[in-house]
Amino acid sequence: MSIPEGLDEHRRGQGLTRRGFLLAVGSVSLLAACRDKAPAVAAPAATAPAAKTDTAFLELSCALTGKTDLDPATADRIEQAFAHLQPELHAQFPTLVTLAGQVTGAQALIAAAGDAKPAALAVITAWYTGTVGKGVHAVTVSYRDALMQRCVDDGLSPPTYVQGGPGWWTAEPPAPIRARA
Predict the structure, then answer these.
(1) CA distances from 22 to 26, 38, 117, 157 (A)
(2) For position 52, what pLDDT does the model report?
(3) CA distances (Å), 120 to each of 6, 113, 145, 156, 169, in order?
């Protein structure tokens, strides 16, 4: 179907078509509705100091978890989160550090903690879950490197991490580490 000669020239002279008008009104409406709802912008990651002289919290964490390969940057983030969110527990860390130098083993340290036992258990929880605090005020300090991920690290990646293309779940899972040796 062709457009009659006179109408074609008339349309070219128009500055705004019905489609353009609707597009403009829709865009303006959307912008007005979202005016005060700007998307959250990720804050730049704070860089850890190159050489932190105070390693007491990292050493306490190693004593409480029984792990010797904990990440110093994650330890700094956990300690800062405790200082900000749960200062009453953070205030008990020096007591735990002193106890860690006197007893051997995580169980013995927890048993000797006395009134500082909730702080000791909170540190362990933070390392295993990767979060400090509870509920809406909780702060995630680590996800991929949380200690709870280690027990299945030989065959599973944390949820939301791509395993390797479409249908990856149909492949045979890897053999457990014990069977590989």
Answers:
(1) 6, 24, 65, 47
(2) 46
(3) 85, 7, 20, 29, 38
Residue in the block written with tokens 């899972």: 173
Q: Which residues of the chain have pLDDT under 50?
A: 42-43, 47-53, 181
DSSP-based three-state secondary structure for 34:
coil
* Angle (CA) 167 169 175, round 5°: 140
How distant, in Å, are the alpha carbons of 64, 73, 76, 136 from that of 51? 23, 10, 12, 33
Q: How far is CA 16 from CA 2, 12, 21, 137, in A?
A: 21, 10, 6, 51
Of 60, 54, 57, the closest CA to residue 100 belongs to 60
Residue 50 is predicted with a pLDDT of 43
Burial of 137 (0-12, 13-18, 19+ CB in 10 A): exposed
Query: d(Cα 96, Cα 82) in Å, to the nearest integer?
Result: 14
Instruction: Note the pTM of the prediction, 2 decimals.
Output: 0.60
Q: Give the DSSP letter of residue 77.
A: H
User: Please, what's the b/e burial string for 45-60 (b: 16 or more CB within 10 A of its CB; e: otherwise)?
Assistant: eeeeeeeeeeebbbeb
Q: Convert the pLDDT of each residue in 58-108 to its tens digit.
A: 999 999 999 999 999 999 999 999 999 999 999 999 999 999 999 999 999
Residue with tokens 């550090």: 97
